[in-house]
Write a structure and sequence with these properties.
By secondary structure, this protein is mainly alpha-helical. It is built from five helices and no strands. The chain has a domain of 52 residues.
Length: 118
């Protein structure tokens, strides 16, 4: 096959290709019964977006410092170890930030008043 013949064959195939796309465009967008599968990579990316921590490291850090200043460093260390599952605040995983913040709020909550009537 000569170069000219190859170019002519390629041009003919491109014309068919363009005709197919023109027909698809004329058909319009896919209907609701025609669904397109989402690639696995896109599923992982959208899942990560949904799992983004609602509590930032800075929020958690501020709460831990407040516990430390009001309740002592032992109380803050206990929250880091027990709830954050880490030895140091910097080692707490992002998915535990909300739990650590909640533990700090519990630690900082005022103790309920004792009822003598019970």
């Amino acid at each position: 096959m000569s170069l000219e013949e190859a170019l002519n064959a390629n041009t003919a195939e491109l014309a068919k290709f363009n005709a197919n796309f023109a027909a698809m465009k004329a058909a319009g967008p896919a209907t609701s019964t025609e669904t397109k599968a989402e690639p696995a990579a896109d599923k992982k990316a959208s899942k990560k977006k949904d799992e983004a921590p609602a509590v930032s490291f800075e929020d958690m850090k501020a709460a831990l410092f407040k516990v430390k200043s009001e309740k002592g460093s032992e109380a803050a260390q206990a929250i880091i170890k027990d709830t954050g599952k880490a030895a140091k605040m910097a080692e707490i995983k992002p998915d535990a930030f909300a739990a650590v913040l909640a533990a700090c709020e519990v630690a900082l909550a005022p103790a309920p008043a004792a009822d003598d009537d019970l």
